[in-house]
Design goal:
This protein is an alpha+beta fold and about 160 residues long. It folds into two domains: about 55 residues, no CATH class; about 90 residues. The chain is built from five helices and six strands, in the order αααβαββββαβ. A six-stranded antiparallel sheet has the order 2-3-4-5-1-6, covered by helices on one side. A hairpin with a 7-residue loop joins β3 and β4. α1 packs antiparallel against α3. The two termini are about 35 Å apart. The mean pLDDT is about 90.
């Protein structure tokens, strides 16, 4: 499912109470009565989602993440990560939904990303903005200490890889 498909499905589910947009070959499941105000609200949500996507520009550098690997798990709010690092890049839309690639001046790259813990991976998981556990990747083990120092109390170490 692409990011756009997911956004549209979420709007249909939240605003129009339509369980799925997949064709199920049944008139009672594929056709829905929708109020004009409900349709208007859904269209406004889609418009706002497109407008937000158009103006979202990550503050982090997108180069050099090749060959990084998992180093730790931290606890931090999505809002704190956005305040410190800007809007995230989109992950693969399945296992990862949000990703920050950080390259401090003259230092090795650090990645922060969710992994299999958001609604993109499983509908029972929280939306990405409610995720609290994030993986940290890098080329070496010292990236986690540097990241925690840069986050100035906004992140807590949960697990460090051996």
């Amino acid at each position: 499912m692409t990011d756009v498909d997911k956004i549209i499905a979420d709007i249909a589910h939240q605003q129009l109470k339509i369980e799925t947009l997949e064709t199920r070959n049944s008139d009672s499941l594929d056709f829905h009565d929708v109020s004009v105000w409900g349709l208007r609200t859904a269209l406004l949500c889609a418009f706002e989602a497109g407008r937000k996507a158009a103006r979202t520009k990550p503050k982090v550098i997108e180069t050099g993440k090749k060959d990084t690997s998992y180093r730790a798990t931290i606890e931090a709010s999505y809002q704190d990560l956005v305040e410190v690092w800007g809007e995230p890049s989109k992950g693969d839309g399945y296992k990862t939904e949000a990703e920050w690639v950080i390259r401090p001046a003259g230092q090795a790259v650090i990645t922060i990303y969710n992994y299999k813990n958001s609604r993109a991976y499983d509908w029972n998981n929280p939306e990405i903005t409610a995720v609290r556990e994030w993986h940290v990747g890098g080329h070496s083990a010292d990236v986690i200490d540097r990241l925690l120092g840069m986050m100035t109390g906004r992140a807590k170490l949960i697990h460090r890889a051996n």
